[in-house]
Specification:
By secondary structure, this protein is of the alpha+beta class. The chain has four domains: 128 residues, PAS domain (Beta-Lactamase, 2-Layer Sandwich), CATH 3.30.450; 115 residues, 2-Layer Sandwich (Beta-Lactamase), CATH 3.30.450.20; 80 residues; 151 residues, 2-Layer Sandwich (Heat Shock Protein 90). It contains 17 helices and 15 strands. Strands 2-1-5-4-3 form a five-stranded antiparallel sheet, sandwiched between helices. Strands 7-6-10-9-8 form a five-stranded antiparallel sheet, with helices on both faces. A five-stranded mixed sheet has the order 11-12-13-15-14. A hairpin with a 3-residue loop joins strand 12 and strand 13. Helix 14 runs antiparallel to helix 16. The chain is rod-shaped and about 160 Å long. The N and C termini lie far apart (95 Å). 17% of the residues are buried.
Length: 498
């Protein structure tokens, strides 16, 4: 009986061994097929002896060695690496041995049948119980087709007329397109080797840029930031940086970032902020004028009117008082108009030509003065703040011509050109004294006020005058300052080449 039980047990064990062997062969077949399909080989290497202890069948195929022969020694394998990559590959392996650390590297291999191939290798350091390095195990994968596709994508990205960069999961610079290189003046190698943020981002924006990038790159969601970036011309311009991740199996494989110039938008936002500050100041001035100067004029006018009414009808002083009251009435009306202008955020109803053409009538100038108005070019809408200052400068110039020059001819000209707006006021009067023209007259601020207003809006004021030819006052303002952009009109864009 015991012999029967032993025979049955041995038969069962043989069946189990056969089943295990069959399962192992199937597993090895599945693994070999998976490696073949993915072009991934596995290996084991002993750095102490230099022996390659194990190569899978796909590892032979990927690296171009005979699968029927033994694994080559490490030096033999290294000779198959592309000559330009041999030193870097050797240094990577030696560093991994010194550090007893895992490694990852890319190199080119000269395959005897397929030519130059791109290989990606990953190695894992196996340590003994005492911490000694026992061996490296790892994989090699043929990434030639993927590398070719990435190169084609990079070439395509280079044709996109916008700054585009490709980053690794940790923010490492992988590729920078042509527009980015041309704008910054940095080469691809410089992008990969220098602190790019410190090199091109405005110092005031650098801390925020670093903080937002670090926080964004640690996640999986798109993010963006605005910052000023220096071009190779040395000028900083505002850009909107957008980062979008490529996520595979829950992991970020790549970050794709673009930079769009928003300098014109920032300039417009800054202009609106300045305009709001200016409007607040104008409102304050309007309140001060109303509560002080205008109220004083009104009170004085009322007192003077009462005094006039107490005079007899035949008093020789009464006509003089009537004249003074008329002047004060006109001054009060002008003061009210000034207050209204100061309180208005948009003087869009002001027509420069109509308003300045009416100055002669407002001043009650005699009709023997030949007053001509000329408008040249295609009229364009003006920025409200600029239009207001032009009106004030033009009015002051016309008042001087009508009231002080004793001119017989006064001409007002407004010229619209593509590049600028030009206003001229000419007369054939007695001219302005050279000393007054240069330094002004004590207690009078007309000339100084015109110059200050012109400077405030970025214009240039020229005054030429002589006793024989009269006076010409010319105000020139660049079109980009004077003319109001329509909502559909694009702002400044990044210069594109190629």
């Amino acid at each position: 009986m015991p012999s029967v039980h032993r025979a049955l047990r041995e038969s069962k064990e043989r069946s189990q061994r056969k089943l295990a062997e069959q399962t192992l062969r199937e597993s090895e077949a599945y693994l070999a097929e998976a490696q073949r399909l993915s072009q991934t080989g596995s290996w084991a290497w002993n750095p102490a002896t230099g022996d390659i202890r194990y190569w899978s069948e796909e590892c032979y195929r990927v690296l171009g060695f005979d699968p029927l022969g033994p694994p080559p020694r490490f030096e033999t394998f290294l000779q198959r690496v592309h000559p330009d990559d041999q030193n870097a590959t050797r240094e990577k392996f030696e560093q991994a041995v010194r550090d007893k650390a895992d490694f990852e590297l890319d190199y080119r291999l000269v395959h005897p049948a397929q030519g130059t191939r791109n290989i990606h290798a990953v190695g894992h350091a196996v340590l003994g119980s005492s911490g000694d390095l026992v061996e490296f195990v790892g994989t090699v994968i043929d990434v030639t087709e993927r590398k070719r596709a990435e190169d084609e994508l990079q070439q395509l990205v280079d044709f996109v007329p916008q700054i585009i960069v490709v980053l690794g999961p940790d923010g490492r610079w992988i590729h920078v397109n042509r527009v980015a290189r041309e704008y910054t003046g940095l080469s691809l190698d410089e992008f990969r080797s220098v602190d790019v943020i410190a090199a091109v981002v405005h110092p005031d924006d650098t801390p925020k840029m670093r903080s937002v990038r670090e926080r964004g790159l640690s996640g999986h969601d798109p993010f963006e930031i605005e910052a000023r970036m220096r071009g190779k011309d040395g000028l900083y311009r505002w850009f909107l940086f957008r980062y979008n991740p490529l996520v595979e199996q829950g992991l970020v494989r790549r970050w794709y970032a673009s930079a769009t110039e928003i300098e014109s938008r920032k300039q417009e936002e800054d202009r609106v902020r300045r305009e709001n500050v200016r409007l607040e100041e104008r409102t304050r001035l309007a309140q001060e004028l109303h509560d002080t100067l205008l109220q004083t004029f009104l009170s004085a006018s009322m007192q003077l009117s009462v005094a006039k009414d107490d005079l007899g009808a035949d008093s020789p002083v009464k006509p003089r008082l009537d004249r003074i009251l008329q002047i004060m009435k006109r001054g009060i009306e002008e003061g009210r108009n000034t207050i209204q202008d100061l309180r208005s955020s948009d003087s869009s109803t002001l027509d420069l030509v109509l308003a300045l053409s009416a100055v002669q009538h407002e001043l009650a100038v005699t009709s023997d003065v030949d007053f001509r108005v000329v408008v040249a070019g295609r009229q364009q809408p003006l920025r409200p703040s600029v239009r207001h200052e032009i009106y004030r400068i033009g009015r002051e110039a016309l008042v001087n011509s009508f009231c002080h020059s004793r001119a017989k001819r006064v001409e007002f000209e407004l010229e619209y050109a593509d590049s600028d707006l030009c206003m001229r006021v000419r007369d054939n009067g007695c001219g302005i004294d050279a000393q007054v023209l240069g330094a002004g007259r004590d207690g009078h601020w007309g000339l100084a006020g015109m110059r200050e207003r012109a400077t405030r809006i970025g214009g240039e004021l020229k005054i030429s005058s002589s006793a024989t030819t009269g006076t010409e006052i010319q105000l020139s303002i660049p079109g980009k300052i004077a003319f109001q952009l329509s909502p559909a009109e694009p702002g400044l864009r990044l210069a594109q080449s190629g």
